[in-house]
Structures are given as structure tokens and as C-alpha cells.
Specification:
Layout (H helix, E strand, L loop, with lengths): L1 E2 L3 H20 L1 H9 L5 H10 L7 H8 L4 H7 L9 H20 L4 H15 L8 H7 L7 H26 L4 H11 L3 H8 L3 H13 L11 H17 L2 H6 L1 H19 L18 E2 L1
Parallel strand pairs: 1-2
């Protein structure tokens, strides 16, 4: 059982809405929707779709907001993608692809189930505090979707980016640079082979990041995590969860519990296409029922 002031509740709810959002990265229909508007190649669609709510921004703003990517990797996509599509076209493509993907996973569920889930998740997303959370704010400001799956996906995306903004803020307090955070996680519970390529860091940059982690007391000389590093990162994760509790407090225990039940079958289906080593880092799902 988890009370509404338990940070663990925010993490559990994240494991329910993050897979809904993540279809935009991993489902073939999402990629096809980007390709249909001229965004060929995975990373063009990724950067154009995720950055589109910000408008036709250049690479520095996106590098800062997305946090974990090597600057040259972002610069290869931005601002050149805006010569292929406008942000408005990218937004339509990402929503089209996401809705088509979700339709494949939810066609067996009753319409009433999807409507109720969309309404509750949309209400939670409408309660996010956006001060200092740029990606959360620009997604919260997008027009409301016309159909339940569009509303469901956009609400999940607003909550996801809102939480991500808070996570970046918590990581900044650790004093680590983006490449150091990625390298640290790959010494703890993630795959360097996957994450280094997915975030664009060179071998030299990776080695330098690990050297600095040793100097900062996060890694031992043999590159195993120190107690200081483990404790400090855990504190940042807990801060992320605490900062993400607002929507669930506003929704209340009964309706948050109901939303978790409604999202369970949707999230479970969406998880089937998310690679085990994906950078989003979803943990194994566990059940927590909120109490008032």
C-alpha cells in the first residue's frame, strides 16, 4: 500500500504511463508516420517529434533539455529537420503514429475502458506544475486530442516530459555532466553497448567521463560504483519521484488506483515492443495501491 505522499507511488504510476508514451519510439507505425512526412532515419523522427512542441529550435536548446545526448548527435538532426518538416507537421506525424500504434494494442479493450483511462490520465496531466519544466509545459499546452487514444497518448506524454524535467533538475544537483550520468548508469544497471551508441558519446569521451567519475568519488579505480555514488544517485531518484507526486495527490487515492487498473492492460501490451536495454530504464513493474 502506498500513501499519496509516498514517492514510490509516483514511480509506479510512471511505469504505467511511460510505456504508453514510448510507442512513439519503438512501434513500426510510429516510424512509418514520420517517414511519410519526409523524416527518414530513426533519429530525424525522434528529434523532430520530441522537440516539435518547442517550435523550430536549434540544437543547443534541445541538447540542454534532453540532457543525456552528445551535442554533435543532436546537431546532426537540428536544425536541419526543420527544412524537411515544420514543427506542426512533426506533431501531427508523431500523434498519428502513436495513435495507430496504440490502436493495435487496445483494439480488444472496450471503448468505455479507453475513454475512462483517457479522462483520468488527462485530468492528472492537467494538474502538473510546469514552472521550471519546459518540456512538460510545452506538451501540456498542446491542443486536446479529438479521440480517446489521442488524448491518452498526449496525457501520457505530458506526464512523461514533466517527470523528465524534474529528473534532469535532480541530476544537475549531483554535479555530474550528462556523459558522466550515462557512464555511471552503465556501471550500475545498464548496457554501455546500447547506451553509448544511442546517446552518441565517443570512446574518448566515455573514458574521460569515467575518469572524472573516479575523481568525483562515484567510481572506484576498478570502475565499480562507490557507496557515495550509489547513495547520491539514489537521492536524485527519490527527489525525482517526490517532485512527480503532484498530479496523483490532485487526482486522489481512489481515482489514482482506478487509473492504475485501467492502464495495466494497456501498459503491459505496450511494454512488449520496448527493448530490454532501452535508455528509458523502465524497472520491473510492481503493484502499489494508493491510500489517502
Amino acid at each position: 500500500m502506498a500513501a499519496l505522499d509516498d514517492p514510490g507511488l509516483a514511480r509506479v504510476m510512471w511505469t504505467h504511463f511511460e510505456p504508453v508514451h514510448a510507442v512513439t519510439y519503438f512501434h513500426p507505425r510510429a516510424r512509418a508516420a514520420y517517414e511519410a512526412v519526409g523524416l527518414r532515419g530513426y533519429w530525424r523522427g525522434y528529434f523532430a517529434g520530441r522537440a516539435a512542441p518547442l517550435g523550430p529550435v536549434d540544437a543547443p536548446a534541445v541538447t540542454a533539455a534532453f540532457f543525456s545526448f552528445a551535442p554533435p548527435m543532436v546537431a546532426r538532426a537540428l536544425p536541419s529537420v526543420w527544412r524537411l518538416v515544420s514543427p506542426e507537421e512533426a506533431l501531427r506525424a508523431r500523434l498519428t503514429g502513436a495513435v495507430q500504434a496504440l490502436a493495435e494494442f487496445t483494439y480488444e479493450l472496450p471503448e468505455a475502458h479507453l475513454v475512462e483511462a483517457a479522462e483520468l490520465l488527462e485530468e492528472a496531466a492537467g494538474r502538473v506544475q510546469t514552472a521550471g519544466r519546459v518540456l512538460g509545459a510545452v506538451n501540456a499546452a498542446l491542443p486536446r486530442g479529438e479521440y480517446p487514444l489521442a488524448r491518452l497518448w498526449q496525457a501520457a506524454t505530458t506526464l512523461r516530459e514533466h517527470r523528465g524535467d524534474g529528473h534532469v533538475a535532480a541530476l544537475v544537483t549531483t554535479g555530474l555532466e550528462p556523459d558522466e550520468v550515462v557512464a555511471w548508469r552503465c556501471r550500475v544497471d545498464q548496457s554501455r553497448e546500447f547506451h553509448q551508441r544511442a546517446r552518441g558519446w565517443t570512446d574518448d569521451e566515455w573514458a574521460a567521463a569515467e575518469e572524472r567519475l573516479v575523481e568525483k568519488g562515484w567510481l572506484h579505480a576498478d570502475r565499480t560504483p562507490t557507496e557515495h555514488g550509489t547513495a547520491t544517485f539514489r537521492a536524485a531518484e527519490e527527489a525525482t519521484d517526490r517532485a512527480a507526486l503532484g498530479p496523483w495527490r490532485a487526482l486522489g487515492a481512489e481515482r489514482t488506483g482506478r487509473l492504475r487498473e485501467l492502464l495495466d492492460p494497456i501498459a503491459s501490451r505496450c511494454r512488449t515492443i520496448i527493448p530490454a536495454k532501452a535508455p528509458i530504464g523502465l524497472p520491473a513493474q510492481r503493484s502499489v495501491t494508493p491510500t489517502g
